[in-house]
Input
Amino acid sequence: MKKLNTKISILFAVLSVFIYQGCDTPEPIACFTYEPSIEIKAGDIVTFTNCSENADLYEWNFGDGTSSITANPEHIFTEANDYKVTLTAQNESKSDQMEITITVAASEIIIENPTSYDLPIDWINHYVNEFTTDGDWPEETTVDYTLSISNGVYSMTSYDTVNTWFFWTNSIGMPAENENYDYEIYYKIDYDNLNQGSGIFSLLSEITFDFYFFLLTPFENSAYYTFGNKNNNPWDEEFLGTGGIAGDYNKLTIRKYKNTLYYFINEVYKNSIPFEGNYGEKFGFILGADSKITTEWISIWKMDLSSQKVAGKKPSTNTDGANNQINSKKITTQKHSVQTGIQAKKMPGMNPTLK
Output
C-alpha cells in the first residue's frame, strides 16, 4: 500500500510540474523596423514592420497624438519634428515595449518654374560681399592687373593684352552639390578692348581647372553673353546670345536647381545647361585681357525649400543705384572678414573672341 501511495505521489508531482510548465506564458519581445529609415520628410508614408516574438496583441503610439492596433501599420507624419514611436507587444498576461525616435524633416517644395527669377521661397545667406578694404577681396597692383576698392566698389583692371585672369577667394567655398542656390554679381564692364568677356565662374577645381562660367562683353555697343562649362568653348554660336546693357551695370545670375544650371541677365532668363556636379568649390571673377570691370556686390543665396511663401525678391536684388545696400540691414563682410588672401591665375584668352 505504501508503494502504491509513493507511486501516486510521484505521478502527481510530475503531472504538477508538467501542468505548471505548460501554463507558464513566455515573455514577449517587442521589435519593429521602419522604411524609409533615412531622410523621412513630412508627408512621406512610413511603413512599420513588426518583428515581435511571443505576442499576439500590438499597440502603436506614433508620438504625434495618434495610435494604431494594426500589426504592421503605415503612418504619415504631417510636420517636421522628432517623434518617439513606441510599440507595446502583449500576450495574454505579459507585455514588452520598444521605442525609437524618428526624425522627420520638412517636406521639400518643388519649384514648378525655375526659369522665373522670383521664386515662392525664402533664401539663406551663404555669402554676400559688398566690398571693404578689410574683406575677402584685397587691393593689389602688379604689372598685369590692378585691384582696388573705393566707396564699396571693387575695380579690376587688366593690363595683360593676351591672357584672361581668374580671381577667387579662399575664405569660403560654394554650397554642397545637393544644395540649390543663386550665385550673382552686380557689375559693369568699363571696357573690353579684345571682346574676350568678363564675368563670373563657379565650382572651379584647382586641380583640373574645370569650371562653369557666365560672361558679358560690350561688342560694338551691344551686350553679348556666353555661358557654359568645360565642355564648350566661349562664344560658340550655341552658347552665344544678346542681353544686358552695354556700358552700364548688369546683374548676372547662375541658378543651380536640381540637375540644371539656369542663366539670367537682369532677372531675365536666358538659357540653361545640365549640371554635371561640383568640379571644385572655388568661385570668383573672370577678367578678360585688356579690360576693366567695377563690381558693387557678389553673393550666393541658398534656397530654403522647407516652406512656401508668396514669390518675392531675395535681399541681394536691391539694385537701385550706385553703392546700393544689399538690404535694409546692410550685410557686410564681417562674417568672412579674416583675410585669407585670393588666388589669381592667368589663362590663354577665352577664344574665339567676337569679331
